[in-house]
Specification:
Elements lengths: L1 H35 L8 H10 L1 H29 L4 H33 L7 H37 L4 H23 L4 H4 L3 H16 L8 H6 L3
Organism: Ruegeria marisrubri
Keywords: Membrane, Transmembrane, Transmembrane helix
Protein name: DUF4386 domain-containing protein
Length: 236
């Protein structure tokens, strides 16, 4: 009876983790591609200022979506730790820490967007407000990529946990590992070879496929038949 309660709780946590993951994917993509992306052109300060000032609600909604994503990411980090801690406590703790660092960095980088907005909203007081605002928008983008360095490490650890767990098909672990490598490579290019970053951008489709597949797998978790003893057998 005790084993059944524990495995039922595990399945429930996994489904909740899948729900949070889904919110993260939808909120993150919406903020970046649908809401903020059409407004910000890092090559044209005046056009960016005009676009944001003509659609302030859209810009604020992008910030709100990123904030929702960060809050859900913190919850997901905890739930994934609870899922894997009995199997490999050190790896599970490491994955949680790296994901939480990513969450903090992305949340803090929102200050770049807020600062840019404050500059534009007070442009009558600052003659060079559009250019200054664009610097802060660029700072936000770099802060986001810095967070993805830690998320890439998290994805590598999570891929290993999924591979070893016995709770998921190993293909999910492979996908998360590939996603981690893409995140690390993409962020590395952003900081050290930015001229190559646009050519590498299509590789992020792999991260979308891997994370969406794992998200759906968590959401569709219905089995409570995995024994706690089985999970303990593979703990390091």
């Amino acid at each position: 009876m005790q084993q059944l309660q524990m495995t039922s709780a595990l399945a429930r946590d996994m489904r909740f983790a899948g729900l949070l993951y889904l919110v993260i994917i939808v909120a993150g993509l919406s903020a970046e591609l649908l809401l903020r992306g059409p407004l910000i052109d890092l090559e044209d300060a005046n056009a960016t200022a005009a676009a944001i000032l003509s659609a302030p609600g859209q810009f604020r909604l992008a910030i709100a979506a990123d904030l929702v994503m960060a809050v859900c990411d913190a919850g997901l980090a905890i739930l994934l730790f609870l899922t894997f801690r009995s199997m490999a406590p050190r790896l599970a703790l490491g994955a949680m820490v790296f994901r939480l660092i990513q969450t903090v960095l992305i949340a803090v980088s929102l200050m770049g967007l807020l600062t840019g907005w404050l500059l534009l909203s007070r442009a009558d007081m600052l003659a060079d407000a559009p250019r200054l605002a664009l610097v802060f928008f660029d700072l936000h983008a770099h802060g986001y990529d810095l967070g993805l360095v830690f998320f890439g490490i998290n994805s590598l650890i999570l891929g290993l946990l999924v591979w070893r767990s016995g709770l998921f098909a190993r293909v999910f672990g492979v996908g998360l590992t590939i996603a981690g490598l893409v995140y690390l490579a993409g962020s590395g290019l952003r900081f050290f070879a930015p001229e190559l970053a646009p050519a590498f951008a299509p590789a992020y489709a792999l991260t979308f496929l891997a994370e969406t597949a794992f998200c759906l797998r968590l959401l569709l978790q219905i089995s409570a038949g995995h024994k706690v003893s089985r999970r303990r057998e593979i703990a390091p």
